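Standup notes
- DV: blocked on the single-chain target, sequence here:
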Amino acid sequence: MKKRQSRGWVRRVQQTSNAMDIPEGLFARSPRAIAQGLKHAVMTSRRTKGTKFQSAMSMLNWFINRGGRGLPQERRDRLEEAKIELRALFARTPQGQALKRSRKRTTTSRKGGSRRARASRSIPAGTPP
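- DV (later): unblocked, structure below
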């Protein structure tokens, strides 16, 4: 007969994983306080993978997903607002791209376009490659 495994796997994963350390009661605060707390936790933790923004957003999504259907709509809305605040703190857009300053582009235009475009125009249609 097989010995039953201990049930402390969540505690073991939380202690040994590369997740950041989150203060107790963080997700019960206001959306701005949640975002600031996650940013502070991610900036001070050395146990993160990916970018700091990815780690913070993944922990927020993890909490939302763990709540599942049992999470009240009011609390879910607060956590979704925290995502918006977190993106603003890290200067990110909803599509995941960093906000960039617009810079003046200086391009030199060539007559005829690129080499690839010129090469494709020089081959007559219907001839084998």
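- Follow-up: The chain has a mean pLDDT of 77.
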